[in-house]
């Protein structure tokens, strides 16, 4: 397991089209799940997708260290494990997070690890980390903004989240096309 701080010399920059795609995918995922509705529980939504979510404190240190070696994630605050069930051969998913963090940090860790599953990453890479970091940053921002400002709840009451998502898509495309032409 590599700590992201150890990857100083290697950098990966997502292309603009990929950033736009991740923004739209993140907003679309959260909107479809109704993140703006009262009582939304992101852990419950992810768990309902068949993903086991566990706190680091649920593991003994030796097992945690072994799991970190096979995690898709490149950081120490979360694990993303994808493995076949030995009996059914079905794919199993597990996210583990450092529960010594603040609630906002835990949310970002879980969204980060979920992004690896959402984007179907199969191995550790800087590209996968960049995508997961962007997804989790946007998701966490939207969740906190909604909790504090109720932005999407208001938008939904004025015409629906579909209009919200379409407006973001149009804005990103306009900005992307304008930059590409300039």
Question: Can you put this structure into words, describing what you see?
Answer:
With 182 residues, the chain is mainly alpha-helical. The chain contains seven helices and three strands; from the N terminus they run H-H-E-H-E-E-H-H-H-H. Strands 1-3-2 form a three-stranded mixed β-sheet. A hairpin with a 6-residue loop joins strand 2 and strand 3. Helix 1 runs antiparallel to helix 7 (161-181) and helix 4 crosses helix 5 (126-149). The radius of gyration is 18 Å and the shape is globular.
DSSP helix fraction: 55-70%
> Which percent band covers the strand fraction?
5-15%
The DSSP helix count reads: 7
Total beta strands: 3
Rg calculated over all Cα atoms: 18 Å
Distance between the first and last residues' Cα: 42 Å
- Largest β sheet strand count, sense and barrel closure: 3 strands, mixed
Average pLDDT for all residues: 82
Strand-and-helix sequence, N→C? Answer: HHEHEEHHHH
Task: Using the alpha-carbon principal axes, give the shape.
Answer: globular
**Structural class of the helix and strand makeup?**
mainly alpha
Poorly predicted runs are 1-9, 178-182
Strand order of the largest sheet: 1-3-2
